[in-house]
């Protein structure tokens, strides 16, 4: 999981955005904590709000027939979240290659980091074929 | 909620099918029981398996461009389910009108009834317009 | 489902609160709309925020060992919600009896009402036994 | 994600079990495929059924006050699953260290591998403290 951690530190990361989410009862499990699979939904919220902030809301990307399925993901858990906790999701976006976009996430409750994760996405066009990351998105997210 | 209960008893109910589902940890909540919203997923399993049993799997109905959104639903809870419980879902189907299909559900753990519910569905065609319940489905589900 | 509709109109409803929720990709299904079971999660958000507004956050009620399981629920759907829609959840609370609390919900997208539903809850104490609705909550929510 | 792949191949993996799961409508998203977060629920099913097969059902472990939270997870996606697909979950268990258990997963639809993932778990006792993997579990899962 080196890449997971290094993803956060590397220099090419250019864009970061923080949003919040309140833990729903539906997201807790019988241990009393948030179910591990729900953090991937929080990641979705993180990248959705980052893309909106960048002026490229995902809902508009999809209206043009392009989709960004997740090809790889991972998460390292440090502490759990409880019902009604107000979490802070910090998301970073970076262009990984001509065909790959990557988001790195850190989720906090108060000052405590709960987890650190990432998702890597490819671009799929209307015909279901792989597509390059659009030029303007590379310019927006690209290395500085 | 009269209709909810009477739906189960009335004479026009013609087709019944029983299937099982094992409670997932993801479906429990911090109370230690299955989250109430998850019972509607169990209802989906009940009607999916009933339709398959009737030789009309929902996946095939949808391939023809027809969809059956839920227009009304309700559930009355009597007892809770725990992680790893093996539940029994009993589902009944009936034609409510020329435009409406109804499923009634009872979910059991061992011999104890946990809940009783229903869903009512309309038919939507490829253009998004309302459609009549297909004749062959009326014949399959119709009053005996 | 008379009661579902009348619940909204009746005079005893004293407290109303509006909150918003943005539709997550995880909540949509292959029809392209929000899965029907997810509306019950939105209802949870509605009552959580109403209780917080009333100065009685559910998380604190639970810390005292009291729980409010859902004993009955229903929902009537009028239209669907899409990914990234910003929904408005209007919630009303009322005391139904010495042992029952009821919430009524209406969810809107822009000015369009998507659904109307309710949940009824009992009070369960630390020993798992039924309890009366606490006196101060009756006073807060009670008939005016 | 080297470790993810090597986890599957390494010699110490001793126990493997295959179970099936049918894709629910609730698990699909607006792309028409299973939402990426749902695969972590499938992983839960895989490890639950493997533990049951080994004669150590997780529900019993939990009754003794021990819990196995996920400390790390990852998944690499190769292809998507559709509504009603019957998936095959292949799960392997291994003891990673005195304090860590690991499960590796591969999910297939027909002969096509959809994804490959893992979860790593620690043991938490009744007091919330870290505990060693129980000796009998080491013996059951240990290196051969």
Chains forming the largest contact: A-D, 25 and 25 residues
Number of helices of chain A: 4
Identify the CATH architecture of chain A: Roll
Relative strand content of chain A:
35-45%
* Main pleated sheet of chain A: 6 strands, antiparallel
Oligomer: homotetramer
CATH C-level name of chain A: Alpha Beta
Number of domains of chain A: 1
Radius of gyration of CA atoms of chain A, rounded to a whole number: 15 Å
Task: Tell me, rounded to a whole number, the average pLDDT of chain A.
Answer: 90
Low-confidence stretches of chain A: 1-6
Give the termini distance of chain A in whole angstroms. Answer: 25 Å
The name CATH uses for the topology of chain A is Thiol Ester Dehydrase, Chain A
- Structural class of the secondary structure composition of chain A? alpha+beta
State the CATH superfamily name of chain A.
Answer: Hotdog Thioesterase
Task: List the secondary-structure elements of chain A in sequence, H or E.
Answer: HEHHEEEEEH
Looking at the structure, what is the overall shape of chain A? elongated
Strand tally of chain A is: 6
